[in-house]
Amino acid sequence: MELKANAALIIIDQQKGILHPRLGRRNNPQAEERMLELLGHWRRTARPVIHVQHLSRSEDSVFWPQQSGVEFQERFAPMAGERLIQKQVPDAFCSTGLEMQLREAGIGQLIIVGVATHNSVESTARTAGNLGFDTWVAEDACFTFDKADFFGHAHSAEEVHAMSLGNLHGEYATVVSAATLLMDD
Q1: What is the pLDDT of residues 1-15, one digit of tens each?
Q2: Which helix (H) or strand (E) segment is 148 a member of?
Q3: CA 163 to CA 54: how far, in whole Å?
Q4: What are the phi and psi torsion angles at 92 (to 5°)?
Q5: pLDDT digits over 64-99, tens only?
Q6: Residue ranges of the Isochorismatase-like domain (predicted)?
Q7: DSSP for 17-41?
Q8: Any alpha helices (H) in 11-97, and if so which ranges?
């Protein structure tokens, strides 16, 4: 792949609440390290970074605004000059002005990382692809949780992650490793 000089790194929901034990077992224990490697690279190369923060409408959510879980983890805190998008649904494009901001800035290539793979990452990547953005998802810089399917069958976080990436790859986005993104620059 060719990483454009203005490719935007979109980091989804790296808030304190995502570490809450009640969310259950997760995959990709090194996902945050991969995200931080990408974030460091984006900052060093002065590319745009967009931090997405979920502000839940549900009081029992780990992202409910009136408690600490809604806050960014310190290691993912936005720096001056980096954009902040606040959303109330999984899709970072829905009612946030993100598309308009990207178009006004002339940004056409998006690299998406964060959580959860099957939820906000997949939802945002689908919309990005549908809107015509050159969309990339770093598979090892995302994670998700064990989840039951519609019929009540339990699936491991690894299976949920793999299925979600399979839904995206080739239709809405290109799925690659973080190392591939760093190597090609």
Answers
A1: 789 999 999 999 999
A2: strand 147-148
A3: 23
A4: -70, -10
A5: 998 999 999 999 999 999 999 999 999 999 999 999
A6: 7-178
A7: GGG-GGG--BS-TTHHHHHHHHHHH
A8: 31-44
Q: How far is CA 89 from CA 37, 53, 63, in A?
A: 27, 10, 11
Task: Extract the tokens encoding 127.
Answer: 């919309």
The whole-model pTM stands at 0.97
- Listed in sequence order, the residues at least 6 apart from 129 whose beta carbon sits closer than 8 Å to its beta carbon are 135, 168, 171, 172, 173
CATH of domain 8-183: 3.40.50.850
- Amino acid letter, residue 121: V
Instruction: Give dist(CA 169, CA 151) in Å, integer.
Output: 25
Instruction: Determine if the peptide bond prior to 116 is cis (ω within 30°).
Output: yes
Question: Which residues does residue 8 pair with via DSSP β-bridges, in sequence order?
Answer: 110
Residues written for the chain: 185
Residue 1 Cα distances to 10, 19, 37, 156, 185, angstroms: 17, 32, 18, 31, 9
Rounded distance, CA 105 to CA 181, Å?
A: 22
Strand partners, 109: 134
